[in-house]
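hey m, so remember when u said the tokens were messed up on ur end? i reran from scratch. heres the input so u can diff it against urs
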Amino acid sequence: MEADEIELNRDSRQLDARGNVRAVFIQVGSSPAAKPTAPPAPLPSRLRGGTAAKPPTTSAKQTPAGPDVIRVHAATLTYWDAKSQAHMEGGCTAESRDGTITGQACDLFFAPSNKADAPQPQAAPGATQRLDHALFTGNVVVRSEDRRAVGERGEYDSALSKFVISGGNPTLYDGSGTSTSGRQLTFLIKDDTILVDSEQGTRTLTRYQVKK
């Protein structure tokens, strides 16, 4: 964590950071290092005609190496170790592999890490925590690839790779310039789908088709 000023109260187990606060947290469900998928073994040579069969072409998808982290910054941050919770104000931004979410204020909720990941006893409060979910309020904007959604309230679920936008008039804008509104928008990052909850019911948007 970095800030212009950091105050640590050991008795109350509270940390206050003020001015250009920047912090990096490991997310719940993140593995220490991602392992690339191994390509299949080559097929044996064919004896007929004396020619060898070429193995099929594969493009193994690799997850970026290292743990999945989220980077947050705001004007101020207060962390309560007893509650495993932090509150940030003055304009908040959180960036992860899933996308970016911004708002006027946000609350971060943490879960304990595995014992194997725990740092030394002298580490700062909260160092053994992983981000479980975050709640943003006030002029919330979520960006994921070429899509953008706006609303008054946004929740990010780290374990499920999900954004939920509600409040005001949640509206989704895609790369083609079209927009969709509803009472609640849910980004399911892993499935590359968005659920739109409206008075007409719930429909699912994908990058290629719309199901009603």
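this time it looks ok to me. The chain has no helices and 14 strands. if urs says something different then somethings off w ur setup not the seq
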